[in-house]
């Protein structure tokens, strides 16, 4: 059975920075309160012409560059987002088109902030089954468009950004070693974006009632998160008969510094073993784990051969963890330039749209 290795990684965050002081001009809050209660100092906000797909494409191309893999070699793309481009089509399909992944099947996976762990696990399972060789997983968010900038309980928390992993099959042991995935739909209303689906289709009333914004019972989510995080880590370690002593670092979902601190205490691990960057990006939901991973690699905190645990939680309710033996790119003789495929992809997309238009035109005339 092949092993599923993470061979590429990339992140992208929009340039505009929104500080706590900026938010204190919008709602009754202040920098001190936000830093004390969440650990967040600032977050990035997408520009008007940036979308989950554009952020996701940037992160994806970087991940392919690290993996030295052409987008045309991808068999599967899973995108996970709490702020997808549309209800449908899947954001994954837009990314597939824009990077030129001509032979990849693409779909979105919805598990709120736990989405990246679920998606990496699904991609790894597809590789381990032997049905595919190369997969791309993207977590991408423009949550700033779904945040009620008058609600101080939520608008202080979220930020925009994207992260991506490339996963590849290899006979060498390592890569994704174990994973646990959990859900509890009885807590569905704890963290939700109720409007715009078929339960509350968009109407004047849903807009008036603010149903198109993120709704959260912050205290309840906090309690849930502190309950499940440590347990999920131990469960994932238990599957491979490992303990926290075998782990080089933990990369948790970046929601709140205090939640991570509580998990560290539960696991009796020093906080230094946790990669934390919530201070600079806030909660980027599905993108927070890959963004933190890229920074951990850049800072030398995660190296080839290290064992790392990813752990996350979010709306659903969902939570999960995975143990990964970090390996890195598969050595190759030839240098691939995935970014060069973007022009080809744009051209191809244009030509396909034109052909579809022409075919439609003539088929209408022949009716
Ligand atoms: O990906 C998962 C996404 N969600 C999360 O992870 C969220 C988890 N929850 C949290 O991070 C925290 O619950 C929050 C940061 C959202 C809130 O912190 P808290 O310590 O649970 O505060 P609280 O809601 O209990 O509010 C304490 C006080 C209240 O005032 P009173 O009633 O004690 O007078 C709030 O009205 O703080 C007040 N408050 C604020 N004050 C200044 C609430 N939000 C703010 C604010 N600035 N932004």
Question: What distinguishing features does this structure have?
Answer:
367 residues, alpha/beta, Peroxisomal Thiolase, Chain A, domain 1, five-stranded mixed beta sheet, 11 helices, 13 strands, 35% helix, globular, binds oxa(dethia)-CoA
* Number of separate strands: 13
Task: Enumerate the spans where pLDDT stays under 50 for 5 or more consecutive residues.
Answer: none
What shape does the CA trace take? Answer: globular
Q: Which ligands are bound?
A: oxa(dethia)-CoA
Number of domains: 1
CATH superfamily: Thiolase/Chalcone synthase
Q: How large a portion of the residues is in β-strands, by DSSP E?
A: 15-25%
| Topology as a string of helices (H) and strands (E) | EEHHEHEHEHEEEEHEHEHHHEEH
Estimate percent helicity: 25-40%
| Class based on secondary structure composition and strand pairing | alpha/beta
Summed up, the helix count is 11
Distance between the termini: 53 Å
CATH level 3 topology: Peroxisomal Thiolase, Chain A, domain 1
In the sheet with the most strands, the strands line up as: 1-7-6-4-5
Largest sheet entry: 5 strands, mixed
CATH architecture: 3-Layer(aba) Sandwich
Overall pLDDT: 96
Which CATH top level class fits? Alpha Beta
Question: What report would you give on this structure?
Answer:
The protein is an alpha/beta fold. The protein has eleven helices and 13 strands. The strands form four sheets. A five-stranded mixed beta sheet has the order 1-7-6-4-5, with helices on both faces. It has a four-stranded mixed beta sheet with strand order 8-13-12-11. A hairpin with a 3-residue loop joins strand 12 and strand 13. The protein starts with a strand and ends with a helix. The model has no long low-confidence stretch (mean pLDDT 96). Oxa(dethia)-CoA binds at residues 29, 33, 37-38, 113, 152-153, 156, 191, 216, 218-219, 221-222, 225, 255-256, 283, 314.
């Amino acid at each position: 059975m092949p092993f599923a290795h993470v061979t590429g990684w990339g992140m992208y965050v929009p340039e505009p920075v929104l500080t706590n002081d900026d938010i204190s001009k919008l709602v009754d809050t202040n920098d001190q309160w936000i830093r004390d209660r969440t650990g967040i100092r600032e977050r990035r906000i997408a520009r008007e012409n940036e979308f989950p797909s554009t952020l996701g494409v940037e992160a994806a191309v970087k991940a392919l560059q690290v993996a030295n893999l052409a987008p045309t070699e991808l068999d599967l793309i899973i995108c996970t987002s709490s702020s997808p481009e549309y209800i449908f089509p899947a954001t994954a399909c837009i990314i597939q088109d824009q990077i030129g992944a001509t032979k990849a099947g693409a779909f979105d996976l919805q598990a709120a902030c736990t989405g990246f762990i679920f998606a990496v696990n699904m991609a790894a399972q597809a590789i381990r089954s032997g049905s595919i060789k190369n997969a791309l997983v993207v977590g991408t968010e423009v949550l700033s468009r779904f945040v009620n900038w008058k609600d101080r309980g939520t608008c202080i928390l979220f930020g925009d950004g994207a992260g991506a992993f490339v996963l590849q099959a290899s006979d060498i042991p390592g890569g994704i070693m174990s994973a646990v995935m959990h859900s509890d739909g009885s807590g569905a209303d704890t963290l939700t974006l109720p409007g715009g689906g078929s339960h509350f289709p968009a109407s004047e009333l849903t807009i008036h009632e603010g149903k198109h914004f993120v709704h959260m019972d912050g205290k309840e989510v906090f309690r849930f998160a502190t309950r499940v995080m440590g347990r999920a880590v131990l469960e994932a370690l238990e599957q491979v008969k490992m303990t926290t002593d075998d782990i080089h670092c933990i990369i948790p979902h970046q929601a709140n510094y205090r939640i991570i601190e509580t998990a560290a205490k539960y696991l009796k691990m020093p906080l230094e073993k946790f990669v934390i960057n919530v201070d600079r990006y806030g909660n980027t939901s599905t993108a927070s784990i890959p963004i933190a991973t890229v920074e951990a690699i850049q800072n030398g905190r995660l190296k080839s051969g290290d064992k790392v645990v990813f752990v996350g939680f979010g709306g659903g309710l969902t939570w999960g963890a995975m143990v990964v033996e970090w390996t890195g790119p598969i050595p190759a003789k030839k240098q691939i330039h995935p970014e060069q495929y973007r022009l080809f992809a744009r051209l191809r997309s244009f030509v396909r749209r034109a052909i579809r238009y022409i075919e439609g035109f003539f088929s209408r005339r022949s009716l």
